[in-house]
Design goal:
alpha/beta, about 425 residues, binds uracil, four-stranded mixed sheet
């Protein structure tokens, strides 16, 4: 039997912990034998002293062993690929990537999460579609992936239960943004989910956990190492999250944008990221093609309408109505206009994320109700030239008062100057 207080002390003093010790700590916590306060102290010790590669793998392995694992590949008789984003503002990538990849003949079965704080979650976005259910049994999930080519559901309670508990604890103890803890949280879920190959989208910048490219590379390397250890192929895209992704931030608004992108009518930065992620997923699948051919096929599926057809079949299969006209709409839409002419030199993701959160699009605390209709649509993005009075953004709100507050908050997210900012592509780097 381990003594948790001793392990905390040894980690606090910078010592390396053994795999058995870490496993007992995590599994004891999941069984309710070790209290929250000791795990919170352990996480804080890790914040200051870190975990080396062996410890990070041992932690991940214990998290996986805390629950059941899936083998979607064996169930489908195919190599299964998966994608995951570390979370950002306006990130609806999965909702557009899923139908495009499925339309190219590669099945996608994905378990997604809910949003917390200024980052939105895929499940919350999907639940803005009237009738859409994210609660499918594992059997129904596998069946739908086989029939439709695509299913996206909430993570089942028995898959990596340790992460569910630990993430909730980290969220309220200032221990979320720690590389080995983020890496083990994400990779335990991906490995337990059974995908043979994984494309990870590591967000970098103002609205992301990783604020600098250097930190994002460290996280990418840690996740790659965990994937290698578990025999999975992993590719990490490092992508810009200084400004919101695409234009829409807010649940139903993001569904409209994801659907438009599946039809080839999405905003340029979001379209580029979606097509790049599709290309890499297709290259990792069992089609025997490279990323350039994957990109060509993804573009063709968008152009010929087959991606939209899969999107509609998928939404219907999960009980929803794919018509964007049925999505909830906010009572008030107010425009924010440019106070001066010039170039948009900055559009802060975190400020837009907070404005959307305050409008009701996100949760300040676990279990908060969200309003699917509200949010922000950024009509002008970094680098755009605007005249005085041009629309910078639309604020979708429940009332005039809330719209006024939203306008004031989003105005603070914009900086307008005389000189265009340096170009910044959406894809900053690839680590593989
Ligand atoms: N996303 C996760 O799933 N876990 C983390 O720790 C951070 C982002």
């Amino acid at each position: 039997m381990i003594r948790p207080a001793e392990l905390i002390e040894r980690k606090r003093n910078g010592e390396e912990l053994g795999a058995d010790e870490l496993a007992e700590l995590i599994l004891g916590y999941t069984r309710g034998e070790i209290p929250d306060y000791q795990l919170a102290a352990f996480c804080m010790a890790v914040y200051f002293k870190g975990l080396n590669a062996a410890e990070t793998y041992a932690l991940t392995d214990a998290m996986i062993r805390s629950g059941r694992t899936l083998d979607l590949g064996a169930a489908l008789g195919r190599k299964v690929v998966d994608k995951h984003s570390t979370g950002g503002v306006g990130d609806k990538t999965t909702i557009a990537v899923g139908p495009i990849v499925a339309a190219c003949g590669v099945p996608v079965g994905k378990m997604s999460g809910r949003g917390l704080g200024h980052t939105g979650g895929t499940l919350d976005k999907l639940e803005s579609i009237p009738g859409f259910s994210v609660d499918l049994s594992v059997d129904a999930f596998v069946e739908q992936v086989r029939d439709v080519g695509l299913a996206i559901i909430g993570q089942t309670d028995d898959l990596v239960p340790a992460d569910k508990q630990l993430y909730g604890l980290r969220d309220v103890t200032a221990t979320v943004d720690i590389v080995p803890l983020i890496a083990s949280s994400i990779m335990s879920k991906k490995i337990a989910g059974g995908a043979a190959a994984i494309v990870l989208d590591v967000k970098v910048g103002d609205g992301a956990f990783m604020k600098s490219l250097e930190d994002a590379r460290v996280l990418a390397e840690a996740m790659l190492e965990l994937g290698r250890h578990a025999g999975r192929e992993v590719v990490c895209l490092l992508t810009d999250m200084d400004q919101p992704l695409g234009a829409a931030v807010g649940n139903a608004l993001e569904i409209v944008e994801a659907r438009a992108t599946v039809c080839g009518e999405g905003p340029p930065d979001f379209t580029e990221l979606v097509l790049d992620a599709c290309a890499r997923l297709l290259a990792l699948a069992d089609l025997g093609i490279d990323a350039a051919e994957g990109r060509r096929r993804a573009e063709a599926a968008v152009a010929d309408g087959s991606a939209l057809a899969v999107y509609e079949r998928w939404i219907r299969a999960q009980g929803g109505d794919p018509d964007p006209g049925v999505l909830p709409r906010a009572a008030v839409v107010q425009e924010l206009r440019a106070p001066v002419a010039g170039y948009v030199t900055w559009l802060g993701a975190i400020d837009v994320g907070h404005a959307a959160l305050h409008l009701g699009a996100g949760r300040a605390a676990k279990g908060d109700e969200i309003d699917h209709a509200v949010g922000v649509v950024c009509r002008a993005k970094r680098g755009d030239r605007v005249a005085e009075g041009d629309v910078l953004a639309e604020i979708h709100a429940r009332s005039d008062d809330e719209a006024e507050t939203g306008v004031a908050e989003v105005l603070l997210a914009y900086a307008i100057g005389d000189v265009p900012p340096p170009e910044c592509p959406i894809l900053l780097d690839v680590v593989a």
